[in-house]
Amino acid sequence: MTTKLFRHAHIYTPQLGQCPAAGAAQAEVAEWRDGSILVEGGRVAAVGAAQDVEVKVSGKNIDEEHDLEGATVIPGFVDPHTHACFAAMREGEFSMRLAGKPYLEILKAGGGILSSVRHVRAASEEELFCFSRRLLETTLHYGTTTVEIKSGYGLDTETELKMLRVIARLGRETPQTVVPTFMGAHAVPEEYRAEPIKYVTLLENEMLPAVAEQGIAKFCDVFCEEGIFSVEQSRKILQKARTLGMGLKLHADEVYDLGGASLAGELKATSAEHLLAASDKGIAKLAQGGVVAVLLPATAYSLKKSFARARVMIDKGVPVALATDLNPGSCFCQSMPFVVNLAILGMNLTPEEALTGATLNAAWAVGMEKEVGSLEPGKMADFIVLDGETPAVLAYASGVRPIRSVWKGGEGQSAGA
């Protein structure tokens, strides 16, 4: 077992509690100006003030020492909402949106998600893996050490299972920790457009049982939105997923206030995501249900929409997490620093709130809070060395990568952008 000591670090980290950080707790971040991190076997053995860690070091054989020269260190980013398993870009649709065509209109015309479905169905498993691996290499370069990846570009049993196999392989063959989510309820496929109820029945009776038997997906997500899946349809799908042992997620109230946030609160889902149109009632239900609000400011930016009401959510006691929403259509974003920048400058989060949102609360949103999201003994030694004096550099340094190095399990990473 390799033992490493990282000295002279200015460490900022949230710390694990009994539940996701909400309200004032979201801004609570531990800081050690002259800190050290002791890593054994890829996990944090000790972290904190240098003199306290030195006690733990006494008598140990240190294989490697790294002097970080006073640089700021934060936990590795956890990206809790991506669609980073696809086979082709959709840049043409971006131009259509710039010309004023609404996304739901693009979807009805066979574009959007359905365009990606055609490409993913046609791709071999190897082609899909290679394309997706390149995406993850770039996200690692920007500090993402743990990433959730959804299926949902298959929309039939065979292709959804193929996607989940690829997602599992990404977790085995890339440095990052990968959390797989089944999202067969991402859209109604073209072959069921005239009979969407039959597709819901297929999801319940065939796809979900097959996914559960495969045993890869940790969560089930549903796109609860006008013209896609109704609140009642979403409830049925998620309740079936719960009986099969999956955690629950919900794409909720992205375009219209359909009641998805309230449904997430009612079901006590792990997370509700997007929430651009969430009402005061929906936000209250999220708080009551202990649901993590996964906000995607880069998507709002790309779609030229108003940001989700993060300030209201935090003030009402909803734990807020941040994610890229990396996908080929509405938001091709691979940079968590850019997301944090938008959260601070566009959604009025403090640097400390945004740091918690991009690390520990994001870990709660994917059920990985005991493994990643903060620098604490026993957790994976995933951290970022920033090129700045505090985490505020993520907002101060707009349009650049303010990162000196990325470490996953105590191993330095050299992924390219």
What is the name of the CATH superfamily of the largest domain? Metal-dependent hydrolases
Q: What would CATH call the class of the largest domain?
A: Alpha Beta
C-alpha geometry: globular
How many angstroms does the end-to-end distance come to?
31 Å
Mean pLDDT across all amino acids: 96
- Quickly count the helices: 16
- How many structurally independent domains? 2
Low-confidence stretches: none
Topology diagram in text:
Elements: E1 3-13, E2 30-40, E3 43-49, H1 50-57, E4 64-67, E5 72-75, E6 77-79, H2 91-98, H3 103-108, H4 113-122, H5 125-141, E7 144-150, H6 157-173, E8 177-185, H7 196-214, E9 219-224, H8 231-243, E10 247-252, H9 260-267, E11 271-274, H10 280-289, E12 292-295, H11 297-303, H12 310-315, E13 320-322, H13 336-347, H14 351-358, H15 360-365, E14 383-386, H16 393-396, E15 403-408, E16 411-413
Parallel strand pairs: 1-4, 1-5, 6-7, 7-8, 8-9, 9-10, 10-11, 11-12, 12-13
Antiparallel strand pairs: 1-2, 2-3, 5-14, 14-15, 15-16
Helix pairs in contact: 5-6, 7-8, 9-10, 13-14
Question: Summarize this, please?
Answer:
This protein is an alpha/beta fold and 417 residues long. The protein has 16 helices and 16 strands. It is globular.
Describe it for me?
By secondary structure, this protein is an alpha/beta fold. The chain has two domains: 3-75 and 372-413, Urease, subunit C, domain 1 (Roll), CATH 2.30.40.10; 78-365, Alpha-Beta Barrel (TIM Barrel), CATH 3.20.20. The chain contains 16 helices and 16 strands. The strands form two sheets. Strands 1, 2, 3, 4, 5, 14, 15 and 16 form an eight-stranded mixed β-sheet that branches. Strands 6-7-8-9-10-11-12-13 form an eight-stranded parallel β-sheet. α6 (157-173) links the parallel β7 and β8. α5 (125-141) crosses α6 (157-173). The chain is globular and about 70 Å long. The two termini are 31 Å apart.
